[in-house]
């Protein structure tokens, strides 16, 4: 059973640092079903390939079952990639799966050109493509025919994946999807498999179009396990924690993405490098900021410690290399009080925050953010109440925790007064699909500090 991982990023032999396996050695590991080997068929400055080979011992494999059957000796288990190979991968590349590299932390956090080859894998070209293509891979799945004397095609493919991804992401994709394609785990699936799936699927599984199939197959068709996993994935989706979560129509994912894109564009417009996300919540915007290397210092602030814990999990702070981790800080603070830790930043973001503040307390927030913290720019987004007529069945405000929702005129009036009071200029723009009469669903104000 074989899997190879190749890179052409110079010096290509740095792949050894990412996998924590020296290219000049053959590494062997005992696993419950045999022996796993890691070796490098090629290791040059221009191209380096690491091979994971699993030598399955039929006696050990049979020992995990209760009864003797000929099929336990005569089968495809020693050859076709399956949960056996995934389990070996998890043991052999444990640090690489976490994205940890003591010697090359920046490289571990960088997408590099990769090629993965799995010579024998159960599955159809269509299913393999549906599983890997949404993750950024270019998929080549060649059906493996039977011998000429038998004729016809087998149920196996020779798989090649190419793309630019982090090594950790590539390994986690394989760890989850190899057993999914094989659809036959070699061990008893217990409840802790749910956590393994969620951990390895962090950052990609929640948005995968085949997540239901993946959860069911990975969890051996245990319906209760799959249901629990899917509910957890839904809870991790950014859309669930967005302001539109309580709206009676499905608009939240597109609008949430457009809002984040608009905020990022505003930050780029003002050339911000050190950014505050005030009222950061579970970290939807923080996750987008972290992906952009132009933001060199990112601080997420929220009043709720539990919410900050959710943000830390979403960002996988415990798995980030030290240099990456140093870019990000999460702090607990109330935005209506002055906090010296928030001073001196290029920009601050209040994305869907002000409407959660009681109107009598809003001047305190203004004084703390615009007056005391005094960032170079402030980006504020809030719902446009005029647009609510487009949400059929909506009564009242868009979210049960909103203290108010403003018309475009009300928001413009508040933004103009705040800018004048604290020495900023301000421009107003809409976010989302705009209606000729009611405007866009979200309104955004970009404040820029007036130079002294």
From TrEMBL:
Residues annotated as transmembrane: none
EC number: 2.1.1.386
GO molecular function, a single term: small RNA 2'-O-methyltransferase activity
Pfam families per record: Hen1_L (PF12623), Methyltransf_12 (PF08242)
Catalytic activity: small RNA 3'-end nucleotide + S-adenosyl-L-methionine = small RNA 3'-end 2'-O-methylnucleotide + S-adenosyl-L-homocysteine + H(+)
Domain Methyltransferase type: 276-378
Enzyme class: transferase
Entry annotated with the keyword Methyltransferase: yes
Swiss-Prot/TrEMBL cofactor(s): Mg(2+)
Matches recorded under PANTHER family: HEN1 (PTHR21404), SMALL RNA 2'-O-METHYLTRANSFERASE (PTHR21404:SF3)
Protein name, per record: Small RNA 2'-O-methyltransferase
Organism: Actinoplanes derwentensis
Species lineage: Bacteria, Bacillati, Actinomycetota, Actinomycetes, Micromonosporales
